[in-house]
Structure formats: C-alpha cells, structure tokens
Amino acid sequence: MTTLGAAMVFLFRKTVSTQIQKIFLGFAAGVMIAASVWSLLIPAIEEAEKDGQIGWISASGGFILGVAFLVALDKLIPHLHPQSNQTEGPASSMKRTSLLVLAVTLHNIPEGIAVGLSFALAAQHGGDAASYSAALALALGIGIQNFPEGAAISLPLRQEGMGTFRSFVMGSLSGIVEPIFGILSVLVAAVIAPYMPWMLSFAAGAMMYVVVEELIPEAHLGEHNDMGTMGVMSGFLLMMILDVALG
C-alpha cells in the first residue's frame, strides 16, 4: 500500500494540491487514533485483566513508554517534515530529501510494531478466530492509511527536485521498516508473553505521539479549512468500522 501511494507521484507529477496533502495526512491520523484505542489499548486492558492485573496500570505504563520511545527517536535521529525548513534531532549534513524520508520512516516504526503484536496476541490465544480477525482488521486499516503516507513522502520529494522514479522508489522504501519491526515484535512477544499488555499499549503510545506531534499539525498547516479535519474523521470512522465489523 505504501508503494501504491508512492506511485501517485506519476499522476501528480511535480505539483499537488495542498488540500489533497491535508486530506491524506488527516486520514492517516484518524486511522492511527482509532487503531490505538480499539486494536491496542482496549485489548491491552482486557489481556491484563484476564491475568488478574489492574488493566489501566499496564495500559497507561506501556503508553508512557511508547511515547518516551518516539520522543527519544525524535531527539536522536535527524529528520525533516514536509513544508518545514527546520531540521529536528541532532545537526546533520544529510540532504533535505534524505531527512524527509527519515521523518516518514520514523512514523512507520510504531505501525509495524502494532501489527506484529496483534498477530502475536492472536497466536498466543491458540488461533482464536476473533483474535485473528481483529489482527487482520488492524493490518488492513494500517495498510489503507499507508497509501496516503506513501504519497505524502513521494510527492514532497518530487517537489524538492528529485526525479520522478527515484521519488517513487524512496517513498516505497520508507515503508520497509513496517514488516521489519512487525517480525521483530512477533519474535520479542514470544519471549516476553506475560508483558503483552505493556507491549500493546507501548505501540499505542508510540502511534499517538506520531499523530499529535506530527500528522495532525501538518494536516492543518497554512490557511484554516476543514479538509484536514474531515480526513481525520474519515480515517477514524473507517478504522473503527473495520475493527468492530471484523473483530
């Protein structure tokens, strides 16, 4: 889906409406908010309570750790967001285009963790059909929102002067961290299964940080309008329906 989104650079060529970018970013934010609640935090609380723990403790503790993890990455890895001229993280001599790719790559790390943990949780439940359906709903929702994320990196790269095909390739590769971190999450979950509630809420905290720190602000840059907001509402509604209908 990231690759399909990145392919939009072949259609829009060098320019793209800021309204479309705002819709893309808002939609991705809405999906991630709903996924954090229905697919991660609620299952984390339920898992903790099944084990006789106090649900909100592991949920809030893991959430805080997830936020702290993304804050650390923001501070340690140089990156640059579209429509911004100020590099975040440590000083770097990397090109502006490389910094743009790093910014989106950071977004994709918690998404990969979330999907990996959801399938690991389903496996720990002995192949329960409902658990696999919920994991599939999360994977589908994250996949759908990866479409606008792919476009959100390839189109700005083209506007920065990078060639069309190279912009497409870089946009596509920005999503490679998702399967990598998804597999790593499955492997880790098998070792520390008792801490699954913490792991799930960790992924939720990391995703919510990305939403509040970057996606929603970028969806509302410039002149005020409702396009970014409608994108958020649409993404949230779609992910909620997927989780409830398939879960």
Which features characterize this protein?
247 residues, mainly alpha, 78% helix
Summarize the structure.
The chain has 10 helices and no strands. It is mainly alpha-helical. The two termini are 22 Å apart.
Straight-line N-to-C gap: 22 Å
Report the average pLDDT across residues: 83
Number of strands: 0
Overall, the morphology is globular
Uncertain parts: none
Radius of gyration: 18 Å
**How many structurally independent domains?**
1
Total number of helices: 10
User: What is the N-to-C succession of helices and strands?
Assistant: HHHHHHHHHH
> How much beta, percentage-wise?
under 5%
Largest sheet: none
Measured as a percent range, the helix fraction is over 70%
Overview of the structural elements:
With 247 residues, the protein is an all-alpha fold. The protein has one domain (2-9, 18-246). Helices cover 78% and strands 0% of the residues. It has helices spanning 2-6, 9-12, 18-50, 55-76, 96-124, 129-159, 164-173, 177-191, 196-219, 227-246. Helix 3 crosses helix 4 (55-76) and helix 5 (96-124) packs antiparallel against helix 9 (196-219). It is globular and about 55 Å long.
